[in-house]
Amino acid sequence: MSNENVMKGAMGTQLLLLSVVVLVISFGFAMMSIMSQGHASFNTNSNIPWGQPIATYLYFALASSGLGMIAALPLVFGFKQFYPIVKRAIFLAFIILISGMAVLAMELGHVFRMLWVIPFNMQIQSAMFWMGVFYVADLLFLLWKMQKMDAGDWDSKTSKQIAIGSFLAVLLASGNLALIFGMMSMRPFWFDGLLPIYFYLTAVASGLAALVFFTYLSHGFSRNKMSQPLQDLMNGALPKLFAAVLGGTLLFIAVRAITGVYTNNPEIYLVWRDYLFASPVYQASLWLGILLPFVLMLSKSLRNQPGTQMLVAVLVFGGLFAERFYFVVGGQVVPLFKGTWEWDLIQYSPSATEWALTFMGSALLFTLYLLGEKVLNLSAMPPAQK
Amino acid sequence: MAKWGMVIDLDKCTGCQACTTACAMENNTLPGESWQDVLYYHEGSYPSAQMKWLPRPCMQCENPSCVHVCPTRATYKDMDAGGIVFVDWNKCIGCKYCMIACPYGVRFYADEKPLLEPDLRDIFPGQKGQLWSPPYQNPEEDWTRGIGVQPKGVVSKCTFCHHKVSKAPPGTPDLDEDNPALKEYVPACVRTCAPKARYFGDLDNPDSNVNRLIGDKHGVRLKDSSGNKPQVYYLGAGAGVPAFQPKPRS
Ligand code: SF4
Ligand code: SF4
User: Fold this and answer.
1) Contact by Cβ (8 Å): A56, A344
2) Most buried among A36, A106, A264, B236, using CB within 10 Å?
């Protein structure tokens, strides 16, 4: 096997330095503005309480869950052709979740208080309580699984049980995250019992985008540097799966949009018509960030090409980030019970501090990833599969 | 224990906003942090256009969605305090989920861009954890019930003036500002209302005036389809919320 991990060399070090610099600057800027102005440095307010930092957290948390689901393909369901990416997937799932949680921590009013009030008050009625429980379980299972893999234990009974536990935690965590929105009947744009399915699909789509991107990055964007089993996967099952989940995502967006525009309820159709579809950014992200990648991945000749795969990964990153943003903000743009004090859809665009948090999360992800590539062997797979 | 309820007669309300002002003075809220507000709506078009307005405190819902979603039990409904819904400022983590879940839009984070310039938080900088420290403050303070000047990073809301109503003699059916023995216990918005459009009393007491008004004058709860079951009732024509409509585009 040609273990040509370019991230172990000088290029990895340079990228690591760059990531650390971006991390320090974005964290420093966000911290300074939050310390000096509090949450007045955000453009959120009592009418739009959840803005881009929450969308960023959602994006990261779901990408992590998607990676966890992809890792379950070989580990739980026996699709052995996915073994070459499984360790990288578990590692990425872990660090993306950490990065998302870091962004969320900067958004909350009292993050340290959370550590004791949630466990001591056991409010099991709240979906947000369960979000804490399931994502902590998810994080621990990922860590445990990572440690087993790193120790070369792929097949023991415990290792398999951890894989199953991890998969269940991922399903519960991301499904429950969907219900945080989907159970809110007072926010009809979100209110939807099938939202967990939509979250699962888009989670896998963003997980695949991350996996493709980081796998190419670690191999210097060259297919030839990959091991044979990994090349086979990139030429076979993985792009097909990518095409399928993008198709599912499009279908889900389409049915939500059609029911949304069809209904007479102004709190739903106005969001679709006057907020989502009226926004050039949303339009671009839908057509270029989801539909175009789907079309590219449908073509047998195109989908196996490294260039197409990398392009699709990057387009899907952007497309799904916008999807999360417009989903989170879209549920709040119709003012609740404000009369003519708020006589229109509420306007919101993120402030510099909120952007800094998005950059901070991304830079933290890159930093942890590059450290991982240096310290661990993320291309490892069970000896029998090589 | 009583179950405190409020009745607002829209046929008497003039939309003067005295209640809003009294509330802000009583509770030292910032501009925009309107625990009590008067909402204006217009509906229809010429020749049958209407203008309507609705005073809006927290509805102290019987089935409060804000309480259900709060992950920390910082928001809680206290049946021993007349069913008032409080925010414990020592427990709130500022996740803002309750603000998402309240159908009546009555919860405030306040740690946000100022509604008006100059920012009062710059003029009276906060001390001892307060978000701002105005020179004249209501001495009543109880952070476990969200009473006092709001600290940073938490959510605030109307408390039905718990610091007043809790001192009323037990068993009082109605807190009527015209009764000199009771006027100090009446919520600030009710006490100040010049046309006497607001009433405050015990919804569990069959002899209370609020119950009689609701029964005789067909009291309604706003947005009743939310299922939250407000403890605030409205009387008179115009007790309804028009559907959301955006500004006409030119
Ligand atoms: S009106 Fe809103 S804040 Fe008040 S009790 Fe009901 S849900 Fe809670
Ligand atoms: S912001 Fe505070 S009161 Fe509201 S749900 Fe979160 S912890 Fe509870």
Assistant:
1) no
2) A106
Min Cα distance A8 → chain B (Å) is: 40
Taking residues A77-87, report their average pLDDT. 94
The answer to whether residue A64 scores a pLDDT higher than 50 is yes
CA of B98 to the centre of ligand 1 (A): 8
Q: Whose CA is nearest to atom 6 of ligand 1?
A: B61
Both tokens assigned to A99: 């990065």
User: Count of domains in chain B?
Assistant: 1
Q: Record the tokens describing residue A256, joined without a space.
A: 């939500």
Strands B84-87 vs B37-43: parallel, antiparallel or unpaired = unpaired
Looking at all shown ligands, the one closest to residue B70's CA atom is 2
Q: Is B250 inside a domain boundary?
A: no
CATH code reported for the domain at A6-385? 1.20.1630.10
B72 alpha carbon – ligand 2 mean position (Å):
7
Residue B243 lies inside a defined structural domain of this protein: no
Q: Which whole number is the average pLDDT over B43-65?
A: 94
Task: Map out the domains of chain A as residue ranges.
Answer: 6-385
User: Per-residue pLDDT tens for A26-50?
Assistant: 999 999 999 999 999 999 999 999 9
Closest chain B residue by Cα to residue A190: B100
Report percent pLDDT > 90 for chain A.
90
Record: contact A109-B95, CB cut-off 8 A? yes
Q: Which residues of B touch A126 (CB under 8 A)?
A: 68-71, 97
For residue B107, how far is its CA from the centre of ligand 2 (angstroms)?
10
- Residue A311's CB: how many other CB atoms inside 10 A? 15
Q: What's the half-sphere exposure (Cβ side, CA atoms, 13 Å) at B238?
A: 21
Please check whether residue B32 touches A, CB under 8 A: yes
**Residue A162's closest CA among A180, A138, A198?**
A138
Q: Any idea what DSSP says for residue A183? A: T
What's the confidence (pLDDT) of residue A341? Answer: 83
Cα–Cα distance measured from residue A43 to residue A211, given in angstroms and rounded to the nearest whole number: 32
Q: What does the pLDDT read at residue A155?
A: 84
The verdict on the CB of residue B70 being under 6 Å from ligand 2 is: yes
Q: pTM score, two decimals?
A: 0.95
Tell if the CB–CB gap between A337 and B152 is shorter than 8 Å.
no
- Print the domain residue range for B50: 4-235
* Domain contains B168: yes
What ipTM describes this predicted complex? 0.94
Alpha-carbon distance of B238 to A267, in angstroms, equals 21
**Is the minimum distance from the CB of B7 to ligand 1 under 6 angstroms?**
no
CATH number assigned to the domain comprising residue B216: 3.30.70.20
Whether the link from the prior residue into B55 is cis, omega within 30° of 0, is: no
* Neighboring chain A residues of B53 at a CB cutoff of 8 Å: 339
Name residue A147's amino acid: Q
Q: Whose CA is nearest to atom 2 of ligand 2?
A: B92
